[in-house]
Amino acid sequence: MNLSIKNKQNLSRYEIGKLGEYSFYKHLDYMFINKKIKSFKWLNKTKESNNPYDFIVIHNNNQKKYLEVKTTKNNFENSIFFTHNELEFLYNSYHDYEIIRIYNKDHRLFMRHSINLDQIVKSKEIKNIYLNKMNQELNKVGLKATNKIKVDLNLRISKEFFSEPIELKVN
Questions:
Q1: Number of structural domains, the chain?
Q2: Which of 84-88, 99-103, 105-109, 147-151 has the highest mean pLDDT?
Q3: Where are the beta strands (DSSP E) in the chain?
Q4: Is residue 47 domain-resident?
């Protein structure tokens, strides 16, 4: 099955995200079958769950992780988008949270998972960028920030916060 996203130029951001989630689902299924993880659940398998993460994984040592998959058509350096809820969860639960980056390189899918999220949280760089962006958008329409308002944040997170790439093979 060819899941190269680059060949699917007319896909919406939502459709690209679903392809990335499906690719990662197949990767987790392989890990489960080979007993590399105890269990996993894809929260958006049938419909969008509106949770700040896409997967829950239980590792063999019973550690629970919340994983958010971010997919782009092209290379790793492309910006990724976060909602207010995703950033809030990241800041409150960064020890149990991972960002999974799925992207294209030479018509093949690759994955990287986040490391050192505590450094991102401690730097507060992303939070400050997000708050400034949200306030700018809200000010344009004369509103004040609340937790119910969702504003996408377009970010580039440096490679230093991610593992080495792994090619995803989906059959």
A1: 1
A2: 99-103
A3: 39-42, 55-58, 64-71, 80-82, 97-105, 108-113, 153-155, 166-167
A4: yes
